[in-house]
Specification:
Number of helices of chain B: 6
Oligomer: heterodimer
CATH architecture of the largest domain in chain B: 3-Layer(aba) Sandwich
Order of helices and strands of chain B: HEEEEEHEEHEHEEEHEEEHE
CATH class of the largest domain in chain B: Alpha Beta
Number of strands of chain A: 14
Radius of gyration of chain B: 19 Å
Largest sheet of chain A: 8 strands, mixed
Shape of chain A: globular
Largest interface: A-B, 55 and 45 residues
Number of helices of chain A: 13
Mean pLDDT of chain B: 94
Strand content of chain B: 25-35%
Number of domains of chain B: 2
Low-confidence stretches of chain A: none
Strand content of chain A: 15-25%
Mean pLDDT of chain A: 96
Strand order of the largest sheet of chain B: 10-9-8-7-11-12-15
Distance between the termini of chain B: 39 Å
Radius of gyration of chain A: 21 Å
Helix content of chain B: 10-25%
Number of strands of chain B: 15
Chain lengths: 344, 278
């Protein structure tokens, strides 16, 4: 592991920006933060609390062309080939990306997602400022030991960088100077991570995340879904701000020449009213409470069944912040269920 | 994400196919016989579906209504949305995109030697026909075959020539009913559940295959419960919004089941933990 002083680190970021890869980093957006193309190293804000949208938007863009076609003719795949460095991904968001890698890679291989993902280098960073709704400590996602190409930890007098893959090590060659991290540096790094393991917890979950699938098995007909969903706007904000939501819609566009066009996919949300509507306007999830429940069941039961039991809620807290009627907090729901039906 | 994976095929890319025959079935349904331009057979199993693609409009999941034992494949398309409306405007010779076949289909081998009862409601005849015709083409492999069909009204009946032939066959029992009778119709009148008591096969031992509009299932399943058909012998064919067909987009999900992958044909006994199914 290497240690860079703050000024060495800034030079490193400048070198990354000057490389042949696009750099996307966390920057201030008003009084909050967002991932976006980084043009100057001084704009990078690794002290951010949480970004408005998760970095998911770079691995699974809001809108993505899947193919182009000639009307009445053939279809040609469209793949993104741009190389990208995603700089400043918090551990909980990294876990979410790693989960999505499994979901798109398993079974039916999604070449669009995987091609883009292959071109992305993930530079993660440990959390410096806890956000107001984070509960990553409860979900076991406050720190990571794998899944990144480089992990950065701010140890006040500099940064410790852990390059874990060939892609990460290749980028580290752009880092000017620096020293091998000393035992003291590593101790400081461990202190930051140990603190995060317990302190990123504004909404403590009263059970281990691994118990959630079992809890939900007994909660399907619980009145809480109806009670909470009573004020749901069906706006889908909990879906769009979620780093693990990956459902999508597919649409076609014809170009002005009326002879060619493209097919694209875009984020969709299971809270939106027509998500499960079929031809003839039959809606298989017509009730708000059943859509509301479906989201929570996907997070803590259905998706985990596909990825070896990992809970598909990483505790970023974005849904809590985004939800106007303040009903989306998963921990509040799980804790209320624990209180009411207990553990078996 | 190794090199070998990056060359994997694009699961969203349709292949070109040509409409070889088109026939108007009803005011809403059109029949198509389709062949893949590659010259290959679709290679489907009875009960599977394809995603039909119209460039510029989109894709729609359509059940395959023909048996794998015939060449090319058939689709019965109801005009119910933008894609199916565009399909209806296409004539013989037109190109469409096809992805699939998708889904699990009927367990055709497991049912060999069993008595089969098909209960079809309306357009539900189309997916069931893929298995009905498979059974007829392999008739000696199966026991008694009874087919019940309920259609809303006389004008909505389709595959009428075939239905007439079915009614003539000695090795198949075919009973039809219309929800609403009319002067042209001399047969049974009433919803499909009213002809279930006419089934000659012992329903407590038969394998029963059900496909129809969402509202039909509950009533048919109640009748079958009365007739003591074991849940593991009942197969339902469920409709959902199968947008991607490959278990990613989430639209067809009912509880933990992705209908495009584990359905659309389900054994009723396996849906105990799937309250969203019916």
């Amino acid at each position: 592991m290497r240690k860079l002083t703050k000024s060495e680190f800034q030079k490193f970021v400048t070198a990354l920006i000057g490389s042949d890869q696009q750099v996307v980093g966390v920057q201030a957006k008003g009084d909050r933060f967002a991932f976006g193309p980084l043009e100057r190293s001084e704009d990078l804000r690794l002290d951010y609390d949480v970004t408005l949208l998760p970095p998911k938007k770079y691995v699974l863009p809001q809108v993505e062309t899947l193919m182009t076609y000639e009307v009445g003719g053939g279809y040609q795949s469209h793949m993104d080939s741009e190389k990208l460095i995603l700089l400043g991904v918090h551990p909980y968001d990294l876990v979410a990306i790693n989960q999505m890698d499994k979901l798109f890679g398993q079974d039916q291989y999604d070449a669009h997602y995987m091609a883009r993902r292959k071109n992305i280098t993930l530079i993660a960073c440990d959390v410096v400022t806890p956000s107001k709704n984070v509960f990553a400590s409860s979900m076991g996602t406050a720190v990571v030991t794998e899944g990144y190409d480089i992990l950065i930890t701010d140890i006040a007098n500099g940064y410790v960088l852990d390059a874990a893959t060939d892609k990460g090590r290749a980028l580290m060659k752009l880092a000017p100077g620096g020293t091998e991290a000393s035992p003291d540096d590593l101790a400081k790094r461990k202190a930051v991570q140990d603190k995060n393991k317990t302190q990123l917890n504004q909404h403590p979950l009263k059970c281990k995340p691994s118990y959630l699938p079992k809890l939900l098995e007994r909660a399907y007909d619980h009145p809480i879904w109806e009670e909470k969903a009573r004020t749901c706007y069906s706006c889908g904000s909990c879906n769009t701000t979620c780093p693990t939501c990956y459902c999508f819609d597919v649409q076609d566009d014809v170009n002005w020449d009326l002879a060619t066009g493209k097919r694209w996919r875009a984020w969709d949300g299971c809270l939106l009213e027509n998500f499960a509507t079929v031809a003839g306007d039959h809606n298989f999830r017509k009730k708000r409470e059943s859509r509301f429940r479906h989201r929570l069941y996907r997070k803590a039961k259905y998706v985990p069944e596909k990825i070896g039991g990992e809970i598909a809620c990483v505790g970023c807290g974005r849904c809590i912040t985004a939800c106007i009627p303040d009903i989306a907090n998963p921990v509040a729901i799980y804790n209320a269920l624990l209180e009411d039906i207990g553990m078996e | 994400m190794c090199e070998c994976c990056s060359s994997q095929k694009d699961i969203y890319l349709p292949e070109l196919a040509t409409i070889r025959k088109k026939q108007k079935f009803t005011r809403l349904e059109m029949y198509y016989h389709v062949e893949l331009d590659s010259g290959k057979e679709l290679g489907h199993k009875a009960g599977q579906f394809v995603e039909v693609s119209i460039a510029g409009i989109g894709e729609a999941p359509i059940s395959i209504s023909s048996s794998p034992t015939q060449s090319g494949f058939e689709l019965v398309v109801r005009n119910a949305g933008s894609v199916t409306n565009a399909i209806h405007k296409l004539d013989s010779g037109a190109k469409i995109g096809i992805r699939g076949p998708f889904g699990k289909g009927y367990p055709v081998d497991e049912m060999k030697g069993k008595n089969l009862v098909f209960i079809c409601g309306g357009l539900g005849l189309a997916p069931q026909r893929s298995f009905i015709n498979y059974v007829l083409d392999n008739r000696k492999d199966y026991g008694d075959v009874e087919i019940l069909l309920g259609t809303k009204c006389f004008e909505d009946r389709f595959y009428v020539d075939e239905l007439a032939k079915l009614a003539q066959r000695k090795d198949v029992s075919f009973t039809e009913t219309l929800d609403i009778g009319c002067d042209q119709w001399k047969g049974n009148v009433g919803v499909v559940t009213t002809i279930i008591p006419k089934v000659k096969t012992d329903l407590s031992k038969a394998h029963v295959l059900v496909c129809g509009p969402p509202v039909m299932y509950k009533f048919v399943l109640m009748s079958l419960a009365e007739a003591k058909t074991p849940k593991q012998n009942i197969f339902v064919n469920l409709e959902r919004r199968m947008k991607c067909g490959v278990g990613k987009c989430g639209h067809c999900q009912m509880n933990d089941q992705y209908v495009c992958q584990t359905g659309p044909v389900y054994r009723f006994s396996e849906l105990g933990h799937v309250p969203e199914a019916i």
